Amino acid sequence: MAFFLKKLARVWKLLPRDGRIFLARVTQKKFTASVAGVISDDQGRVLILDHILRPASGWGLPGGFMKHFEQPIEALEREIREETGIELTKISLYRVRTLKRHIEFIFTARGLSKGEVKSREITAVEWFDPAHLPPEMNVGQQFLIRRVFGLDL
Asked: Which of 46, 123, 140, 148 is deepest in the core (most CB within 10 A)?
């Protein structure tokens, strides 16, 4: 199964952006919804995961698609727990945005443990200084993290 997922991830990353968006949403008649978390720890670091299916570098904020009838906070807690085993506290809605037929709920929260890889979708769980993020990480997410942490841009 892991071999198949790695092959699928390679194909996914080779697809053009519009192709990935089309495939992710083809089964949804109206819209898709996801959650993402800017999760901090006691040392002021931010949680970044290396995702198998994320285009480019793989490094990005934790989160994922919401399930049918699931509330956004429940989805965030479930995704973080499933991917890293980390429980959250001080969860706060930071921003909601729409991208065509997609709604994204972005939260801030505090992680209560270091965490570890718990999902086949994740290859690494790391805590980064928000001023020193992986350079190959999505620039939009880097900007969001720095904004949440109040860093000069």
From this structure: 46
